[in-house]
What does this fold into?
Amino acid sequence: MTSPDETPAPAKPALPALGPALGEVLLVTGGTLGLLLAARAILGDWNQWFILLWFVIPVALAVLRGEDPIMTFGLAPERPLRGLLVALALSATLLPLFAIGATAYLTGGERFLAFDLELATKTLANHLVLVALHEEAFFRGYVQGKLEGAPSNNRLGADDDDGPPKASLGRVAIAFAVTAVLFGAYHPILEGSDLSRMNTALPGLLFCLLRHLSGDIWAAVLFHAACNAVLFGVQGGLAG
It folds into this structure.
């Protein structure tokens, strides 16, 4: 019971409804893929600067709402040490198994492991900047964050104590599933490859977990680039 002189603590802002958030991410994802496909059709060859198109619509929406775009994309480190430790633990545990499994899959079980360390190292450096960063910023930062309900409460000038409440387990599961499916679907749509590229939804779930546990996208960016590096390393080892 509070005394008449005490000011009651302000209530935390409620999470945005899931339905409108889901509708928004579907429209924004479709619109962003449309921009990328149009840019490629108009300009012909793929250009690394096209990655900036991933940010156009979400940034515009964030500005219109008075939200911080840095928070919208999960770029502000929240628990960097925790995220880094989880990323390193997953990498040390899963990536060797991934390399062995990829070798066996690509050779029909004829070889145990093939790996080009030099190519993997170059791929890691390249993909950290030109692949993993913008994909994680869009899918794990914007899409997952929007579905979990985080970005809409990260308004510019908001008090730190007014952070968003935690999403329920069910809402987190929906956010993981939708984000992973959209991430998997974008590969064959944008690359013009077959539907087997939808299998990228599976590692996408791990990227979602890293984003959720750390509160930002940096651990997911690191693990994403490392996964790509291992795959390229295996392919290079087989080619050599």
In short: The chain has one domain: 18-239. The CA atoms of residues 77 and 216 lie 6 Å apart. The two ends are 74 Å apart (CA to CA). Confidence is low (pLDDT under 50) at residues 151-160.
